[in-house]
Amino acid sequence: MANEPRETPGERIEVARIVVGPFQENCFLVREAGGSGCVVVDPGDEADRIAERIDERGWKPVAIVNTHAHLDHIGGIQELKEKYGIPLLLHEADEPLLRSAPEHARFFGVAEPTVPAVDRRLSDGDVLDFGGIRLEVLHTPGHSPGSVSLVAGGRVFVGDTLFEGSIGRTDLPGGSHGTLLRSIRRRLFALPDEAIVHCGHGPDTTIGRERRSNPFLRESSVGTIE
């Protein structure tokens, strides 16, 4: 079923996906293979469902790491913070988006989320080590000013920067089409072709597949990117 989590074994980590909320956003649970601790990436909504999946596996959340702070990625944060006593990590440039989430919710006609406190600010080049779960932070702005991608074990969690056959929208506050293309080409396309891309919406893809066939990223469609 589309809303059920999907586990993807890797050499060092396991990934479970849970599709949540009216925007069908992908929340990911990431843990070291065989371990019990897990990192929650982008808990966008339905914190109760996310917690149920965590608890039924006997996993122990150690942190929430958000790729960015748009409304559809932050709705479950506060409840999970309170339930598990874990910190939220977010890039400083997206804190204004986080604070404006209730306003955006009213615009879209959805429930207003509680705005959580940021416990640690992410920076480009950070290596987050959560007891065997290592996430390298790449600042990949464009979809939002503080968007980051998280590299772990031959995988990259890109939020809404890159999708299968598409790219993130840039018509929201803080978006920049040129900046987004530079982030993808300079940061994401520097990763190996076989790297698995976990997107904020929709299916997984790979860096090589998007490099070869993404219509938004062909040279003829983007020109020279400085």
Give a verbal description of the structure.
The protein has helices at residues 47-57, 77-84, 95-99, 101-108, 177-186, 207-213, 219-222; strands spanning 7-9, 13-20, 25-32, 37-41, 60-65, 88-91, 120-122, 127-129, 134-139, 148-152, 155-159, 162-163, 166-167, 196-199, 205-206. With 226 residues, the protein is of the alpha/beta class. It has one domain (7-222): 4-Layer Sandwich (Metallo-beta-lactamase, Chain A), CATH 3.60.15.10. A hairpin with a 4-residue loop joins β3 and β4. The N and C termini lie far apart (43 Å). It contains seven helices and 15 strands. Helices cover 23% and strands 29% of the residues. 45% of the residues are buried. The strands form three sheets. It has a seven-stranded mixed sheet, with helices on one face.
Brief synopsis:
This protein has 226 residues and is an alpha/beta fold. The chain has seven helices and 15 strands. Helices cover 23% and strands 29% of the residues.
Helix and strand composition category: alpha/beta
Count of beta strands? 15
Q: What is the rounded Rg?
A: 16 Å
**Main sheet: strands, sense, barrel:** 7 strands, mixed
Instruction: Write down the overall mean pLDDT.
Output: 91
What's the tally of helices? 7
In whole angstroms, how far apart are the ends? 43 Å
**Which strand-content bin applies to the residues?**
25-35%
CATH third-level topology: Metallo-beta-lactamase, Chain A
Q: Which regions have little confidence, pLDDT < 50, spanning 5+ residues?
A: 1-10, 220-226
Helix share, percent: 10-25%
Based on Cα principal axes, name the global outline.
Answer: globular
**CATH hierarchy: architecture:** 4-Layer Sandwich
